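Appendix B, Record 12. Input sequence as logged:
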Amino acid sequence: LNPMTAFKRVMSNTSWLILWAFALTVTVGCSKSSDGSAPSKQEATTDKSKKQKQTPIVRVLVLQPQNFEKKMRATATVEAVRHAQMSSPAEGPVVSIHAREGDVVKKNTQLLEIGRNASSLAVLVAAEASLNRYRLEYERAQALVEKGAVSQEVFDTAKSAFSQAQAVVESARQGTGDFTIRAPWDGIISRIRAQVGSVALPRQTLIELYDPTSCVLRFELTEEQAMSVKVGQSVVARFAAYPGKTEFLRITRAWPELDRVTRKRLFEAELSAGERTWIPGLFAEIEWVAEAHTGVWIVPTAALLGSPSQGYRIFKMIDGDRVHSVAVTVLADYGEMSALALSESLTNGDRVVVEGAHFVNENQLVHIEKSR
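Logged structural output:
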């Protein structure tokens, strides 16, 4: 053979031997662990641990009788019950205003005058003149009938005419009074809606007045809230104007029906006439006890299993570390807590599952987590 050809054949066979030896080495290396242990033992241990079922971890609560209060909250506003929006049936320019917002006024104080009342004054003057004439005729007829000089019919006619004249004068005085607005009672001017020189239209609100002694706390409640209160019940009020202060008020009025649009019912509570100053518009937050139970078990609502239609159950601990579900009756719930009625299936001192109940089954072993 050619020396070069013989060399190539030897090198070709040697290459195949080297590749076969390398492949065998890699296969043996992959079949061993990094520490040289047999892989079959590690795989067997891993498979075994996966097949083992982990024990659920739960938290428990020891039952003790407690008192439970379900409270509700709402917002309220101070309002004046006696609030007047004064207007006039007359029309004319406003010639004078005798009050400003915040003024304390007495009953019958003149507040505003409307001009162009000359015609009403003329009617009053004429009516008063006619009244004086009919008064003289009535007095003369009365004297004559007593003497028998005239008949009773003449006297009755004079009396009727005098009464009609009185009515005309009263009507004329009322028409004249329409051009002047006076305070109907003692109060505080809350708003002036007119200016001197502006034209006042009939039945246009010109001045608003309220009685500060008539202020109450008014609030609207939803249907659920409205059914939990009644007249005479106490509420706790906290006013933004008086931080840190608490007022204990009594409900004095409840509207007979709900508002058809908002589906809410209106209530009023009496404000104490003490050191506080009450003005319309003050904001307050109120709170009241909607439901109260004494000597019940209180547990987190999340610990209950079931629904209102199907009933509720709860897990309690038996035989040390096993769980058993029992039926319970929920009296009320408030926030994240629920009140349970006393029953024969549970007794004081029983441990019930309050966390992890949704991950355990009946009569299952559990691990109780220590209190945090």
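Helices lie at 3-30, 39-51, 118-147, 152-177, 223-226.
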